[in-house]
Design a protein that fits this description.
The termini are far apart. This protein has a three-stranded antiparallel sheet. A hairpin with a 2-residue loop joins strand 1 (4-8) and strand 2 (11-16). It is built from 14 helices and three strands. It has a single domain (84-341), classed as ABC transporter involved in vitamin B12 uptake, BtuC (Orthogonal Bundle), CATH 1.10.3470.10. It has helices at residues 25-45, 55-62, 68-103, 115-129, 134-153, 160-184, 187-197, 206-225, 227-233, 237-242, 247-269, 275-287, 294-315, 323-341, and strands at residues 4-8, 11-16, 19-23. With 342 residues, it is mainly alpha-helical.
């Protein structure tokens, strides 16, 4: 695959196979700044805990140097937690950008339209009834909820408003199922499920990282490849159809891609609230674009989750406060602001 760069009328464009776009200096600068912002809580988060380790000690432990104790703490306990937060933020941010662009609605995100709730319902069923793998149950639940929302909202096309309303209904249904399962579960099983339901990075292992990392390696290029369809759908289904876009196929391909990212992230970290909603809106304003940029939205999601994880360990130092509590507290005002603007 050859990358082609073209400069005309003061703009630089790139093309690689079907993927194409405009290289915007502001977006590149924003992306680089976000990488630096991500590195700060990523590295600092591995220094804090019941056994504090200095930053030079963390760097040495990452390379297997130093005492066995700090090496074990960093490589097997804190690094998986940080990497899970990084990848889950990427997945939630990009999934939110896909949903909001395709539906042309800033309120459309996996945690609002029922995808996360569907994943959570099936995972809680597995945790309380003792069957299946949390990862694959989450994926099946999220995909099932996403396809149900799309099927119920399709009327010779779909609109962001109808998609959102149907999604809220499906989310309420899945949440009711989850609450019923929690009420019937044993105390230990309910406590375990509740800790996962609020979204947490506590006790993350490499087994949580691997499926999500593979998913992002596969679906991120797919999302970039489908970028031209995303930009055309943003103009409206009729305009996109006039430009030669297979509208229904584009909707399905993009939503399946977004649902896949979101459900694997939910399986790894739980349904961390509002990251998929907030990150694309922040990224859009930072980049100064008309729609959320995919990669910048993912980087913003990572920055939000990692910063919230560090904050959660400072709010109540004696306990492991779930990261979803912090993102929920920060995301709720943003949701109210978006509702007030519409």
């Amino acid at each position: 695959m050859m990358l082609q760069l073209t400069r005309a009328h003061g703009r630089t464009t790139f093309r690689a196979a079907r993927a194409s776009g405009v290289l915007r200096p502001r977006m590149i600068v924003v992306g680089l700044v976000l990488v630096v912002v991500i590195l700060v809580p990523f590295c600092y988060g591995m220094t804090i805990g019941s056994f504090p380790i200095s930053l030079p000690g963390v760097i040495s432990a990452l390379f297997g140097q130093g005492d066995p104790g700090p090496v074990y703490i960093v490589q097997d306990l804190r690094l998986p937690r940080a990497v899970t937060g990084l990848l889950a933020g990427l997945a939630f941010g990009m999934a939110g950008a896909i949903f909001q662009t395709v539906t042309r609605n800033p309120l459309a995100s996996p945690d609002i339209v029922g995808v996360n709730a569907g994943a959570a319902a099936l995972v809680v069923a597995g945790l309380t009834l003792g069957f299946g793998s949390a990862t694959w149950l989450g994926v099946l639940g999220g995909l099932g909820a996403g396809l149900l929302v799309y099927a119920l909202s399709w009327r010779r096309g779909t609109t962001g408003f109808r998609f959102l309303l149907v999604g809220v209904g499906v989310s309420a249904m899945c949440t009711s199922i989850t609450e019923f399962l929690m009420a019937k579960a044993q105390i230990f099983e309910a406590q375990r499920a509740m800790g996962w339901l609020v979204g947490t990075l506590n006790d993350r292992e490499w087994s949580h990282v691997q499926p999500l990392a593979i998913t992002l390696l596969v679906l991120t290029p797919v999302a970039l490849f489908l970028g031209p369809w995303m930009r055309q759908l943003q103009l409206g289904d009729e305009v996109a159809l006039g430009l030669g876009t297979p509208v229904r196929a584009a909707h399905i391909a993009l939503l399946v891609t977004g649902v896949g990212m979101a459900t694997f992230a939910v399986a790894a970290s739980g349904p961390v609230l509002f990251v998929a909603l907030v990150a694309p809106q922040i990224a859009q304003r930072l980049a100064g674009l008309a729609s959320p940029p995919l990669i910048v939205s993912g980087l913003t999601g990572s920055a939000v989750i990692l910063a919230a994880d560090v904050a959660s360990r400072y709010i109540l130092p004696s306990t492991q406060l779930p990261v979803g509590v912090v993102t929920g507290a920060l995301g709720a005002p943003v949701l109210l602001w978006l509702l007030a603007r519409r």
